[in-house]
Recover the amino acids of this structure.
C-alpha cells in the first residue's frame, strides 16, 4: 500500500522540519523584535512608560501598515524589519521582502500543519529556511557589534570580522539543526 506523504518516515520528517522552521523563526523574530526594543528602551529601564513611548515613536508609530482595505494597523515584526533596514542592519527591499516571506511561510506551517502533512504540493521551502538562517546570523552579528563590540573599550582599535562573531542564538540554532541533519534515521 502506498502512503505518499502519510508514510510514517515522511510524517516524522515533515513534523521535525516544521518544528525546526518554527524554532528558527522564533529565534529570528526575537533578534528582530526583542533586540530592537531592548536597544531603543535601554536608557529608560527605570521608566517603563517612557520606554514604551520611545519605542512607539521610533518604531511602532513610524511604520504603520495599511492593508488592502485601507485599514491602518501596527505590525511590530514588520515595523522592526523596516527600522532595521533604515539603520542599514539589513539591505534594501530584497531583505525586507525575504523577512516578510519567511514569516508568511512560518504562518502557513503553523496554521496549516495538516496541509504540510497531507498535500503533495505543499512543502517546507528550504530556500526560505536557508535565507532565515542567513538573515538571523546577519542581524545577530549586527546586534553584537552595536551592543557589545562598539561600546566596549576592550575592542577599541581592533578589527573584528563578521566571521569571528558567534552569537549564542546562532550557535544554538546551528546545534539544533545539526542534531537532526547529522543523526542516523533511528532518531528521526
Amino acid at each position: 500500500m502506498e502512503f505518499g506523504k502519510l508514510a510514517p518516515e515522511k510524517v516524522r520528517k515533515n513534523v521535525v522540519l516544521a518544528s525546526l522552521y518554527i524554532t528558527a523563526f522564533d529565534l529570528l523574530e526575537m533578534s528582530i523584535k526583542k533586540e530592537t526594543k531592548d536597544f531603543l528602551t535601554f536608557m529608560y529601564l527605570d521608566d517603563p512608560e517612557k520606554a514604551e513611548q520611545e519605542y512607539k515613536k521610533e518604531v511602532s508609530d513610524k511604520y504603520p501598515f495599511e492593508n488592502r482595505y485601507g485599514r491602518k494597523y501596527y505590525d511590530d515584526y514588520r515595523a522592526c524589519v523596516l527600522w532595521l533596514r533604515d539603520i542599514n542592519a539589513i539591505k534594501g527591499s530584497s531583505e525586507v521582502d525575504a523577512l516578510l516571506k519567511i514569516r508568511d511561510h512560518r504562518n502557513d506551517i503553523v496554521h496549516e500543519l495538516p496541509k504540510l502533512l497531507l498535500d503533495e504540493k505543499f512543502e517546507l521551502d528550504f530556500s526560505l529556511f536557508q535565507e532565515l538562517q542567513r538573515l538571523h546570523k546577519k542581524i545577530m552579528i549586527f546586534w553584537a557589534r552595536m551592543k557589545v563590540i562598539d561600546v566596549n573599550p576592550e575592542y577599541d582599535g581592533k578589527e573584528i570580522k563578521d566571521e569571528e562573531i558567534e552569537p549564542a542564538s546562532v550557535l544554538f540554532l546551528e546545534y539544533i539543526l545539526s542534531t537532526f541533519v547529522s543523526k542516523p534515521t533511528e532518531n528521526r
Remarks:
- The chain has one domain: 4-187.
